[in-house]
Protein: Transcriptional regulator, AbiEi antitoxin, Type IV TA system
Organism: Gordonia asplenii
Amino acid sequence: MHPFPIDGDGYIRADTALSLGFSPQQLQRAAAKGDLDWIASGVYAVPAERTPEAQHRFEVMAATTSPAVAVSHASAGVVHGLSMLDADLSRLHLTSATSDVGYKRTRRHVHPGPLTPDDIVQVDGLWVTSRERTAFDVARTSTSGFPAALAAFDSALRTGGDRTVMQAYGAQPRTGVGVARRALTFADPLSENAGESWGRAQMIEGGLVVPRLQHEVFDDAGTFIARTDYDWVDENGAIAMVGEFDGLGKYLKYLQPGEDAQDVIRREKRREGRLQDLGIIVVRWTWADLKAGRVVSRIVAQMRAIGLPTPPPSRPNPALARRRRSA
């Protein structure tokens, strides 16, 4: 058990520890032994099991910010609770209102402005870029391109972001603005997580008809059957096929008291059987399928089997192929 003082935010701050008689060497030795986690310069914490987002938020909240230097990009996305795809959490991202040149350090990436008062908000005493500015910055700078841009905008809209404000950012000539503009035209708050956004991005890039999202299905007696991730209708407007993204987070989200993931999986299988009883084709995919780029081919195969219109064959997208190889 370490003897160091912990403040109300869960941090062990070197200046406080030193004022109580501890030495810098004691803190350094504790960190070297793994008794403390290094968070930022002069800031430590008790080791704990944390998701990458939770760990990064811990690091972000230890930062010193001002209206002139605000947390931004993926770091601000974590603060706002955005569901991001391939977010760069290797560094603390900041934007400086007073600099037109950015720079990177081992644990910090300072982006150039501009940064106006309308671009920033305070969250838990921390100056961060607004939800809309954050989503737009993530969308235009992500190395994962269109899918990551779509995920950022979907999440921003789902959590209360203003589409009009984000569109205004698109009018400014910035790096990556074209990708961001295109993604924003397809953004939908009904997409529930980054995995669902990535699947829809692959459909869009593959030329598929954009499916309806989160639609409720009832049987002929009016009994609720399911709320599906995606669905496609036939020429009569009846649901012919649904798509389901099977992410672990989804199963955890639907856990009921006393259940584990296997209980949710069994319930999902019963739900799928009831959809099939209605004559609806169910297509499922996982993170591995998204990474391998198998989603569109799987959907198209089922569409052809049941007579839904499919896009004409197209030449491979080089950018998409590069993302698959790097995944």
Summary: Residues 52-189 form one domain.
